[in-house]
Amino acid sequence: MLITNNKSINRSYFTRMLDYCFSSFISIGVFFIFLSLWQIANYYTSDFILANPQNVILKALEIIKNYDEFDLIISLKRAFIGSFISLCLGIVLGIISYKFKTFLLFIKPIISINLSIAPIAWVVLALFWFGFSDFSVIFVVIICTYAYTFSCTLNALNDIPKGLKDMAKIYKFSKKSLFINLYLPFSLAHLLPASLISISNAFKLTIMAELLGANNGIGSKIADARSFLENDVVLAYLLICVVFLAAFEFLIIKNLELIIYKDKTNV
Amino acid sequence: MNKEIFFIPMKSFFLLCSISFSLGIFVYFFSDDFYNNHIFLFFDIALSAAYTGFILTALPAWLGFNKTLKNINIFLLFLFLTSALTYFINTFFAMFFMCIFWLSLSFICSFMCFKTKNFNSLILILFGFCFLKFAYFFTLNTDFLKALIHLNSAAIMLINFKISIAVSRSALDEKNYKDYHFIPNVYYKNLSVFTLILLSIFSVIFSNIDLKFLYIASAFMIFARLKDFHHKELLKTHYVLFLYISIFILGLAYLIYGLNTTSASLHLIFLSSICINILLVFNIAGLRHNGLVLRFFKRTYLSFILLFLTLLLRYLNINDFAIICLFLSFIIQFFMLLKIFLNNSFLQDA
Fold it and tell me: Do B191 and A26 touch (CB under 8 A)?
């Protein structure tokens, strides 16, 4: 890294993206170290206890190749719809709570109750209420993840310095300008990581809900693999989830960060 | 004649290393036992000379040790030449003397640390080398040689880190960026060194397991180091570009070996981690410590091109031409270094 006057030098989006690509090699390297340790563990145990990582990778590639047959799209759709709705719900509730303190006092206990209930309980309840369906899985995702997004939105809005808000008032900023120049950058600093966590939670919850209460999707396939003692299939699905989330972070979240926060050079 | 050649470690050992690599051609074409001879020549003789030359030049500067190394150099030269010459009479004793040589070098460097109340992680790697040398000497198990290659790559990562600071400063000064400062990522360096040391340990302990994933991991850790150099201000200078290419090729060699575990790809690691980096260090340290401007000669470019060609030919198993390219590359280096060393006085503080 080059610095001048204790600040890293300004660089183009392309260069910062290239830097990010290279720094992501560290994560890839760590992932391969983990695979290596897995390979060693496989050597000293057996394929039944811990499948060979090479076979798992090949199986994962086969699943990705025949994504329709292996219900990948169904689970992705559920996770995305669930996390999108929970994100919107969390943001809307966060904004309303920021604007109206009465509403905040009202919703806080509900959020607390929501957080104290185990996700697995929601899965069981959703099964009773909605049966084996897309909606039951999406419901579980929404109910378990919106509280986190709500907290992030509220914290983001509360974190905006009072001085800046006063300045915006004095200079009579338009609503649009206020939103674009003040609220959006501050909120995104909290919401971008929150959306990543929301998506990853949505994924985990989708699989868990499918495992217990659906007849299709990744979770259901994992349940089948468990019945047939197909260790490599279970691990292949987990590997796909990890790779998918990493790709989501790399392609979407990080790109947005690089575009929005031009000063953030050190990734 | 400039007597410094006998008393300054860098001068005597860099020249010996160039000669050793050049001798490979005779071993290849005229030796009955090519396999063992080339291992001794490249692993014991050439590698030892390169490390001694570099460490006894760089370490005193890093630690602030400013006593003369004249007697140390004579002692190490004696051990080194004894080992090299004994090889023609008795292989066992030659290898034994080389082990003693490494042990002496490690203790000399430790003594420097003790005297200056300073520490450098390279010392640990030196003792690692010692252990592996002795282990190979007692067992003749080639797993220890593999481990030695990876440990050498770890050392290269450490050395490159230090060199990158010096050459980047030089590059920024040359291009008139006086107020710019280069800060390499120390955490990436640590991770790359850690992974390579892990690979070195695992290649001995788990020698019967295919460690392809760990090779690929090492490749990515090495590639990550390149992030530091992604600045047009730095890459405009040829020596930073060479440093960048040398690290990239080392990473590529590990990636190729991870994807295709063959003898040819293992030689790629040896050639990229040892030969290319040795050549780079020869030129950078050779010029800086002799008071010359950091600007590679045309012959240096030719040496590098020949070495890259060696890499390619060795990977394609065109060994006859590969060894000729290696010979030419280092013989060019030898005469170039000889000229520099004879005509210039050594500078400890470069």
Answer: yes
Which chain B residues have a beta carbon less than 8 Å from that of A18? 230
Contact yes or no for A9 and B231 at CB 8 A: yes
Burial level of A52, CB count in 10 A (0-12/13-18/19+)? middle
| Chain B interface mutation, best of A9, A17, A33, highest count of B Cβ atoms under 10 Å | A33
Across the interface, whether the CB atoms of A2 and B180 are under 8 A apart is answered yes
Q: Which residues of A touch B224 (CB under 8 A)?
A: 22-23, 25-26, 29
What is the per-residue DSSP string for B14-34? HHHHHHHHHHHHHHHHH-SSH
- Ordered per-residue pLDDT tens for chain B, 350 residues: 567 777 888 888 999 999 988 888 888 888 888 888 888 888 888 989 999 998 888 888 888 888 888 888 889 999 999 998 898 888 889 899 999 999 999 999 998 888 888 787 888 888 999 999 999 999 988 899 999 999 999 999 998 898 898 889 888 888 888 888 888 889 999 999 999 999 999 999 998 898 999 999 999 999 999 998 888 888 888 889 999 999 999 999 999 999 988 888 888 898 888 889 888 988 888 888 888 888 888 888 999 999 999 999 998 889 889 999 999 999 999 999 888 888 888 777 66
Q: Do A36 and B211 touch (CB under 8 A)?
A: yes
Question: Do the Cβ atoms of B221 and A53 come within 8 Å?
Answer: no
Where helices occur in chain B by DSSP H, the ranges are 4-7, 9-30, 34-39, 47-63, 70-86, 91-116, 122-139, 142-174, 186-205, 212-225, 232-235, 238-259, 263-270, 277-288, 298-315, 319-343
Measured in whole angstroms, the distance separating CA A53 from the mean position of its chain's CA atoms is: 25
Give pTM, 2 decimals: 0.87
Given a contact cutoff of 8 angstroms between Cβ atoms, the answer to whether B310 and B325 are in contact is: yes
